[in-house]
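Quick one, tokens below:
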């Protein structure tokens, strides 16, 4: 048994925990970062990074095939083995040693093992008790949700962990769910040669995004040969002799070699000692905008575990906020206009779906006086160089007419993820629409979509002339 004191103990060292610990260390605080598995968390090893490594080759090949001249130079299909090998390099063969120096350079003490809160300001890791003078920051993330479907657990389905680290591409892959992870993995594995079936209970894919985004992803998956069953639920699963059979409530059974469950996440709070401080295990840890829990003034929660936005960049953003508040700079915190479900987000299918702020429907539900304007992402000179006619793409701005600002933007199109940040700046910065006319997109870039959007909105020209209709 040993007892050590730190200013701050960070429980869980995924992207959120690491950034928070590092920032606190830089500020001169004594920090312990506790990690039970891999420093870098789900994102680095089983989520963002490997999934993009699996998606990018297929996306690139599709884009090349749209461009005459290169299309002829690239024949044949992807080399699945080489794709998996590159994925392994990107996830460092599940070795987190390259993450350690970054923390150590900031004076952070890394403590390996599962940690549990053990009463006020105390975290137990095995026989070690870490006592926090100032704060405990919980950053334990989420785990995959396995629904109570007859036979599902016994079938030992893939979760994101197996799907992102698989050593072989299954001939037939069935995917339960139609959210972001499901559509990304459907596209990745179909590009690598699997026959993929997607089973989604709702009547559209990626149901939180604009309906046109769901439509574009659906069309693209079906064009790639993915069998997408909407409005369909699995009622039972049987695994026998390497064959998985899914019984459905609508239509015949689906047979597959592997089954991936991607229906959502549960918060990693069951076994971290929340009961010792009067909080309910298994629930997200509610926090205010300074990432502090209402339950105790020394308790913070950042990243997926607080349930605000299940995205790495938002976890890291919250990490910076929490660290600054702990250091005592909380007066410098500004409220965000793109947090929670309005955070910037990208789905890396082909076409990409990139969105920030409200969808039209969500804005109306929030009581805003909004209208939407749509133009083709591909309807400008710059798009001539991005598979113009063969690539689908739409851009929508959601505009708050009472305030003359953009409150939401959604882009679909080939390789448009990098477009998103301009929209994020406009939304978060609440840039007046009249000012945006002076942000002139370079020619011939696809950013000219902004020009067409402003024209479609009937915004006055740069000299304040009357709006065009
Ligand atoms: C397939 C997939 C693809 C994704 N792609 C993207 C993407 O492209 N972009 C994006 O922004 N987001 C993406 N996400 C979401 C992203 O992975 C998460 O939002 C992000 O990992 C959350 O970071 P976190 O630090 O909150 O938690 P995590 O990354 O889950 O890290 C939590 C850490 O805490 C550790 N831990 C848990 N319990 C304990 C304990 N008791 N003691 C010690 N350590 C503990 C865990 O081992 C883990 O290392 C994706 C998710 C999935 C599943």
């Amino acid at each position: 048994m040993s007892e050590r004191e730190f200013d701050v103990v960070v429980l869980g060292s995924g992207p959120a925990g690491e950034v928070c610990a590092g920032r606190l260390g830089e500020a001169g605080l004594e920090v312990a970062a506790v990690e039970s598995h891999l420093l870098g968390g789900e994102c680095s090893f089983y989520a963002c990074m490997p999934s993009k490594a699996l998606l990018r080759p297929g996306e690139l090949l599709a884009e090349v095939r749209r461009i005459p001249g290169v299309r002829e130079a690239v024949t044949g299909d992807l080399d699945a083995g080489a794709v998996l090998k590159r994925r392994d390099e990107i996830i460092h063969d599940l070795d987190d040693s390259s993450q350690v120096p970054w923390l150590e350079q900031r004076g952070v003490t890394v403590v390996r093992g599962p940690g549990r809160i053990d009463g006020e300001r105390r975290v137990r890791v095995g026989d070690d008790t870490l006592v926090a003078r100032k704060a405990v920051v919980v950053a334990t993330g989420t785990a995959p949700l396995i629904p109570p479907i007859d036979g599902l657990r016994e079938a030992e389905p893939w979760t994101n962990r197996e799907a992102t680290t698989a050593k072989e591409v299954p001939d037939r892959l069935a995917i339960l769910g139609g959210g972001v992870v499901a559509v990304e993995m459907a596209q990745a594995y179909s590009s690598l040669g699997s026959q993929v079936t997607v089973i989604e209970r709702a009547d559209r894919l990626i149901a939180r995004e604009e309906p046109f985004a769901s439509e574009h992803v659906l069309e693209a998956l079906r064009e790639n040969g993915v069998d997408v069953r909407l409005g369909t639920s699995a009622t039972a699963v049987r695994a026998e002799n390497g064959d998985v059979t899914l019984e459905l409530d609508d239509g015949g059974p689906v047979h597959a070699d592997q089954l991936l469950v991607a229906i959502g996440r549960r918060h990693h709070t069951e076994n971290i000692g929340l009961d010792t401080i009067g909080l309910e295990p298994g629930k997200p840890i509610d926090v205010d905008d300074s990432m502090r829990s209402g339950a105790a003034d020394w308790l913070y929660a950042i990243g997926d575990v607080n349930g605000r936005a299940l995205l790495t960049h938002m976890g890291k953003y919250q990490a910076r906020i929490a660290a600054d508040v702990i250091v005592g700079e909380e007066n410098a915190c500004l409220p965000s206009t793109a947090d929670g479900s309005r955070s910037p987000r990208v789905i890396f299918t082909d076409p990409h779906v990139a969105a920030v702020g409200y969808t039209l429907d969500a804005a109306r539900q929030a009581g805003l006086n909004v209208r939407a304007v749509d133009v083709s992402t591909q309807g400008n000179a710059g798009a001539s160089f991005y598979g113009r006619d063969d690539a689908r793409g739409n851009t929508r701005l959601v505009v708050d007419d009472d305030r003359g600002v953009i409150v939401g933007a959604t882009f679909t199109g080939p390789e448009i993820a990098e477009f998103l940040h301009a929209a994020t700046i406009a939304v978060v910065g609440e840039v007046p629409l009249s000012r945006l006319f002076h942000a002139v997109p370079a020619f011939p870039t696809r950013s000219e979509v902004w020009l067409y959007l402003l024209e479609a909105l009937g915004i006055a020209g740069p000299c304040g002339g009357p709006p065009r209709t």
